[in-house]
Amino acid sequence: MEIGVVGKPNVGKSTFFTAVTTADAQIANYPFTTIEPNRGVAYVRSKCPHTEIGRPCNPRNSTCHSGTRYIPVELIDVAGLVPGAHEGKGLGNKFLDDLRQASVLIHVIDASGGTDEEGNPVDIGTHDPTEDIRFLEDEIDFWIFGILTSNWRRISKTAETMGKKPETMLFEKLTGLGINEHQIGSAIRHLDLAERPSTWSEDDILMVARAIRKKSKPMIIAANKADLAEEEALKRLMEMKDYIVIPTSAEYELALRRAAKAGLIEYEFGASDFKVLKPEALNHAQTKALDRIREFMERFGSTGVQTVIEEATFKLLDLMTVYPVEDETHWTDHKGNVLPDAYLMPRGSTARDLAYKVHTDLGDNFIRAIDARTGRVIGHDHELKDGDVIKIVART
């Protein structure tokens, strides 16, 4: 799973990425600071089951702190997008190519309206950030549309002759975009389309492209620079339909993480507050800055950055956390490590799906599974729940 961090230039995209991953992305106040995509790892939080058995866990693919498991997710911060990207304007072709494998998109916008459509600084409130949301949708839609319409008549007629379903033909056209046939079928199922794709008009194909984008590249809005936004403008953003909109300040989150790393404050990312550890080490400007950050957190509950990552993971992608073990009695692997692994799985996943997630051989040789909490034997098609601790039994 890969989370794409997208948006036009100069909205705080790279600051957001740096804050949530602590990676060293290039940050500056001009368009196209990011040219090559930055890749990094962020973490989402789940309650760790080790608190139920009163023994500390030994995480291997994640970390645990005070009963909270921190599970890694991959992020990619790509070049800023400007109108006309699908036609190659700005760094458009590169931007869109870098998004191919993203499962979900975090669209970072300038909620203050302080940057124009190409990312140039303007007076606060003079640009409508909702326009940026619409233009990014359009760019991705027309990108997919362009791929679909290439040799459309020939390919669609050939597919009809071979008896292929429309979703199969569309899947073959979109190979490499991280879009599966199930998503395509679900996207077009309720569209008013002719039975034969070769008769579809360009408007039909664009409608198909939009539906596929919504299903395969769901988007959450990080309303960044919310500390600078006017109250009414922020309210309009929050009332937008069809999107989860989270007020954020990536600059504040980055400042907190750096202050925590320096030992000046105590701060757990995603928290609603922080504790100053060394007030004597702070100058007047730093103290005032921390006061402003605390006011923002009191207003919105946090800096919003961690919330965006977790809403994208657990709500838009509808993932849950499952813990495979080899010893269902002690919740350990064969080395005695307690709850060593935590896997993010799509809600609705089965015991066999988990077996394949751990290792292909386990899936191929699956016999049964055991719910470690209840000791109950479960079959291959048993639907897992968030937080399950599961032993897989396979042929050796």
Question: Helix and strand layout, with pairings?
Answer:
Blueprint: E1 2-6, H1 13-21, E2 38-47, H2 50-53, E3 63-65, E4 68-77, H3 92-98, E5 104-110, H4 129-149, H5 152-161, H6 166-173, H7 181-188, H8 202-216, E6 219-224, H9 231-238, E7 245-247, H10 250-261, E8 265-266, E9 275-276, H11 284-300, H12 305-316, E10 319-325, E11 343-346, H13 351-358, H14 360-364, E12 366-371, E13 377-378, E14 389-394
Parallel strand pairs: 1-4, 1-5, 5-6, 6-7, 10-14
Antiparallel strand pairs: 2-4, 3-4, 8-9, 10-11, 12-13, 12-14
Folded structure, characterized:
This protein has about 400 residues and is an alpha/beta fold. The protein has a domain at about 320-395: Ubiquitin-like (UB roll). The chain is about 35% helix and about 20% strand. The chain contains 14 helices and 14 strands. The chain has helices spanning about 15-20, 50-55, 90-100, 130-150, 150-160, 165-175, 180-190, 200-215, 230-240, 250-260, 285-300, 305-315, 350-360, 360-365; strands at about 1-5, 40-45, 65, 70-75, 105-110, 220-225, 245, 265, 275, 320-325, 345, 365-370, 375-380, 390-395. Strands 1, 2, 3, 4, 5, 6 and 7 form a 7-stranded mixed sheet that branches. Strands 11-10-14-12-13 form a 5-stranded mixed sheet. A hairpin with a 5-residue loop joins strand 12 and strand 13 (about 375-380). Helix 1 (about 15-20) runs parallel beside helix 10, helix 4 packs across helix 8 (about 200-215) and helix 6 (about 165-175) packs across helix 7. Mean pLDDT is about 90; it is low at about 25-35.
